[in-house]
Specification:
134 residues, 6-stranded antiparallel β-sheet, 33% helix, globular, single chain, alpha+beta
Length: 134
């Protein structure tokens, strides 16, 4: 993934673009055991240069929008692989890489729509917050 511009921090792959940063987080299932493991892939966006009222981060997270990868890449496994020590890691990495790249292409091609949705949701949250304070 590094040759394609991704960086990795623990279980999160990130790639910066002029208007946004994409993050793909590998989340292990809480039901994993020594014999069978499952994971999910969370896709996140951080928008760069938002207008002033929208430059806040939600509690406990540092991104603006998030979704599971199967909502963006319809043929992505959901939940992700149930795998064991007998499975070939190269196959898992290959499918995971393909799905992350496909999600990245979709997110980048539709970034204006995602940003509009974020701004609309933020407008609603700000309005609700001001009503509570009134």
């Amino acid at each position: 993934m590094k040759p394609l511009g991704f960086t990795k921090d623990r279980a999160t792959f990130s790639r910066q673009h002029p208007s946004h940063t994409e993050r793909f987080n590998i989340q292990p299932s809480m039901f994993n055991n020594p014999y069978q493991r499952t994971f999910f892939v969370n896709c996140m966006l951080l928008f760069n240069d938002l207008p002033e009222p929208y430059q806040f981060r939600h509690k406990h997270k540092d991104w603006d929008w998030d979704q599971r990868i199967e909502r963006i890449v319809p043929d992505a496994p959901s939940p992700w692989f149930e795998y064991s020590h007998q499975d070939d890691p190269a196959v898992i990495v290959s499918v995971l890489s393909r799905c992350i790249l496909q999600a990245s292409e979709t997110l980048s091609s539709e970034i204006c729509g995602y940003m509009r949705k974020y701004i609309a949701q933020t407008d609603l949250a700000l309005a609700e917050r001001s009503q509570k304070e009134a």
